[in-house]
TrEMBL record:
It comes from Caloramator australicus RC3. CRISPR (clustered regularly interspaced short palindromic repeat), is an adaptive immune system that provides protection against mobile genetic elements (viruses, transposable elements and conjugative plasmids). CRISPR clusters contain sequences complementary to antecedent mobile elements and target invading nucleic acids. CRISPR clusters are transcribed and processed into CRISPR RNA (crRNA). Functions as a ssRNA-specific endoribonuclease. Involved in the integration of spacer DNA into the CRISPR cassette. This is CRISPR-associated endoribonuclease Cas2. Gene3D superfamilies: 3.30.70.240. Keywords: Antiviral defense, Endonuclease, Hydrolase, Magnesium, Metal-binding, Nuclease. Transmembrane segments: none annotated. Mg(2+) binds at residue 9. One of its GO terms (molecular function) is metal ion binding. Homodimer, forms a heterotetramer with a Cas1 homodimer. It is an enzyme of class 3 (hydrolase).
Length: 104
């Protein structure tokens, strides 16, 4: 299984919503623009292809609009080993973490 976190900074609603729909098919949303995933390799590669295609289309739009702010937007994918993925600490009263729970 491939595990990780995806974070994005997309300013245009239409594109941000499209990326969110793509990620919702593969990942669990943990923050507004942050998702976590645990996928087998084939499904991970499928997700990655869709993200790459999305980003190419987004950049094409951004360069055509000539808005430097849109051009500098990003998507980060952090791959995590099993140990790191399981050692996460969650500070959220809605989520129970098998390792630790803290209600603030």
């Amino acid at each position: 299984m491939i595990k990780g976190i995806i974070s994005y900074d997309i300013s245009i609603d239409r594109y941000r919503n499209k990326l969110s729909r793509i990620l919702s098919n593969y990942c669990t949303r943990i923050q507004y623009s942050v998702y976590q995933f645990e996928l087998d390799e084939k499904i991970y590669k499928d997700m990655l292809k869709k993200i790459e295609a999305f980003y190419r289309n987004y950049l094409r739009y951004a360069y055509t609009s000539a808005n430097i702010d849109d051009i500098t937007r990003s998507i980060y994918i952090f791959l995590l080993c099993e140990g790191c993925f399981n050692r996460k600490i969650v500070f959220d009263k809605r989520v129970k973490n098998s390792n630790r729970e803290m209600i603030i």
